[in-house]
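Chapter review: from sequence to fold.
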Amino acid sequence: MMTITEIMDILPHRYPMLLVDRVLEIEDGKRIVCIKNVTANEQFFQGHFPGAPVMPGVLIVEAMAQCGAVLVLRDMPDRADKLFLFGGVDKARFRKPVVPGDQLRMEIEVLAKRSNSIKIRGVATVNGEVVAEAEMLSVMARRQ
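The token string follows.
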């Protein structure tokens, strides 16, 4: 549905912090499904952990938040002037490790939306098994 080039037109993130590779599905204002292909070349694997690489849970949550930002910013006409920042993370659970070679599938749904904030719920899976889930609050800020 959306390629990395289209995602980069929406999100301000760049390597190594861009954690969304493709959008598979979108229901405007309601839901989005994205993927992140986890490779051995990821910068964070150098130190997390040498000889036993595991994707940090905070980066899985960040990847889910970026999916939510794509959903919200996609149709916003003045999106170049906006940033979505974390306002909070609730009910975060990490079920299984994510390792090089995994394809992280993230399904995000909007729980509540206000003029300058959004609450989303994300579930990340690998091969159909839940690896992480969380509720996230993002607050819109003016980009300086």
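Two observations follow directly from the output. The CA atoms of residues 65 and 136 lie 7 Å apart. The longest strand covers residues 129-142.
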